[in-house]
User: Fold this.
Amino acid sequence: MVMVDIFLGESSILQEISMEMAEGEVIAILGANGSGKTTLLKTISGLCRPRSGEIRFNERRIDRLPPEQIVRLGISQCPEGRRLFPYMSVVENLQLGAYWRLRKGEKVREDQEKVYHLFPRLKEREKQMAGTLSGGEQQMLAIARALMAGPKLLMLDEPSLGLAPLVVQEIFSTIRQINQGGVSILLVEQNAVMALNVASRGYVLEMGRVVLTDHRETLLKDERVRHAYLGG
Ligand SMILES: Nc1ncnc2c1ncn2[C@@H]1O[C@H](COP(=O)(O)OP(=O)(O)OP(=O)(O)O)[C@@H](O)[C@H]1O
Ligand SMILES: [Mg+2]
Assistant:
């Protein structure tokens, strides 16, 4: 059971956020620029510290743990803007995603084959420098690198940003495949329609607060969501 409860009181960026997710779920986090989506993900992965409240993962409290330990417990983040190492090859970027596992002497070869199976284009470009990949390929590599950590929960920060519609379709169909493989997904998106196509539920953030949460069908019909994010 993957459970994430967050109560961040007093923090100027996120306030009294309360959310939870069950194992195997895909949850969408929607919200305008500056609403706190990235900060929320960073708080879960231990890069930002909540001033109060707690975060639990599989019943275990993680909000005081260092980021690397949170990764090892099974939470992996694919950051906004991809953050690849541009002068390193595709395969080197992937191996950095498995850094902690390699240090423990774990075999990651099988996982590498799995991500190549998900993203055949990355295998074709294994030796190519990451910085020379197309935008879509870079996003694929960023997701693949996050998967190399062997997560139970994968957090994706705006995977569709700056990509052509066809590439976005491709990325989202892979996200669905990753979830079908048993990985829970927390999906931050401004593209609400795409996000709610794969997610079963969503949370809408506004100025660091959850202003709305519901199942996908209800959110897609909601006036506020339509107005703000669906151009309705
Ligand atoms: N390190 C920081 N120091 C101070 N303020 C910050 C910091 N990081 C973020 N903020 C502020 O917190 C708010 C939320 O930022 P955040 O990046 O979480 O938003 P977001 O929803 O991810 O936005 P976007 O859609 O543009 O990515 C913004 O007002 C931002 O300026
Ligand atoms: Mg952001």
In short: The CA atoms of residues 133 and 181 lie 26 Å apart. The mean pLDDT is 89.
